[in-house]
Amino acid sequence: MVLTYRFFSNGKLYFTSYYNGKKEITSNEESIKIQILRTLKKSNFKRIKEDNGIFYAITIPTIWSFSEIIKVEILKNSENKFLVKFDSKCLFPLQIFDWGKNKKNFSVFFKNLES
User: Fold this and answer.
1) Which residue, among 41, 113, 42, 46, has the nearest Cα to 74 in the 3D structure?
2) Residues in the chain where the model's pLDDT stays below 50
3) What is the pLDDT of residue 9?
4) Range of 34's domain?
5) What are the DSSP calls for 50-72, one per residue?
6) Were both Cys, which of 28, 36, 37, 83 would link to 75 (CB 3.0–4.6 Å)?
């Protein structure tokens, strides 16, 4: 049933719950990388790694989910404009419902990034 819903709503066809979003930021690339690293730490994400402008982290387990995998990617739009893409996906592959935790990760990250 979940896969049928995701098929007709143009969602990804796997069981794991996820949320993704993006925002445009005006700055230089080095400043954005430093800012994203600080924001991931401030957002209480753990095991943060960076690989060629892509940041990876995980969340701590809670009563609502085992954990989520966080991926933040920086894409250059123009001279000083960058697109920051954020993905949050449940760690456990069969976790169908995330109880809003993936969207909350997105909201917390961008709130901290903008402050």
Assistant:
1) 113
2) 6, 13
3) 52
4) 17-114
5) EETTEEEEEPPP-SS-S-EEEEE
6) 83
